[in-house]
Specification:
Low-confidence stretches: 438-444
Number of domains: 4
CATH class of the largest domain: Alpha Beta
Helix content: 40-55%
Radius of gyration: 22 Å
CATH topology of the largest domain: Rossmann fold
CATH architecture of the largest domain: 3-Layer(aba) Sandwich
Largest sheet: 5 strands, mixed
Structural class: alpha/beta
Amino acid sequence: MQTNFTAEQLRDPGIAASNQVLRTCVHCGFCTATCPTFVLLGDELDSPRGRIYLIKDMLESGRPATEDVARHVDRCLSCLSCMTTCPSGVHYMHLVDHARAVIEKTYVRPWHDRFLRSVLAAVLPHPGRMRAALAAARLGRPFVGLLPAGSVPGKRLRAMLALAPARLPGRSTLDGARVHKAEVTRRARVALLDGCAQRVLDPAINDATIRLLTRLGVEVVVARGAGCCGALTHHMGRHDPAMASARANIDAWTRETEGEGLDGIIVNTSGCGTTVKDYGFMFRSEPSPWRERAERVSALAVDISEFLSRIGYQPTREPPGLTVAYHSACSLQHGQRVTTEPKALLRKAGFRVVEPAEGHLCCGSAGTYNLLQPEIATRLRARKLENIRATKPDLIAAGNIGCLTQLAGGGVPAVHTVQLLDWMTGGPEPAALGAVATSSPAAR
């Protein structure tokens, strides 16, 4: 694709990076076939190719973002399916992230949109605030019928209340910064990103990760000062808060690498993993030593399934006799290109793994997308659940808390992959399985 940026524009690191992405695109349109919003809406501007044209025009002109540009970019899930499909290697993620930052700076959104985005950015990355907000949401659920169903604010508030769990898990006894010693001879030392939303919505996932790794001889460090990866604010175009979150993590993990050392930084939420692995790019224009530290962190970041495959996971229980529909989170299969490891581990653990049709299409979670674009997210959820139920599984396995929350309540229990792997090496039965698991040989 030909671009027409001035020399002055190209001195901006964001413009320079976007220029490289734009010039890689050859207009082929392969991306449209695998884009969830184009599949649903059939609008070229709601496809990656259409958005690329909109973003190109906005950046080249230097004008503030228009309502039209904001609307179509907002509808992008950042599922990155287009990057898997693209034969030219267009790094759409970096382009759309830059576009969102420009939109955030130059476009004046309606008041209710600005307010909701500010609330989400202020609450979701902070576990204490999020827990308080979810407790308040539970009190508000009985009154959801009073909210206007036809307005944008009403639809979003309804979506927020619907997604709030009926019962909030208590804080884990393993939560907080500390070192979890290996139960047998130490073979590795890793840091675990304990994150933000997952700690509130399902702390059992981090617990299972810690139990499983320490059981396998891995010392697990939850570093003091580390927290939200920055993805939630980054994908809303809020550059400074995202960089602040990333900087705190980089600082915390650098202390560990320069201390006793780390063999990896384990991430068990694939949306976070995609962002942490991109820290090197995010800090490409930062002065030393931040750029080098970010690159080192990105190189150490690894999904839990990658790490377990690397160290040789082995189950100790009898096969459970359960059929698992594996839902490949977009951030894992498209963002990190991790596709075979989770399925291989589940099969090794004794599960029968089935893959639903249209596995490349997003479930509609996508960070805050199901709150900001509830209509599209609901349609994608229904489509995903229909494909999953067609495989007649006993349960769903996925590696991302957003997907698990989105697919909950769909008639099939949804469990994090690491909880199943922990169970098959002596850990507790995942609570979400209920009667399905207790009737299996492994639970007896």
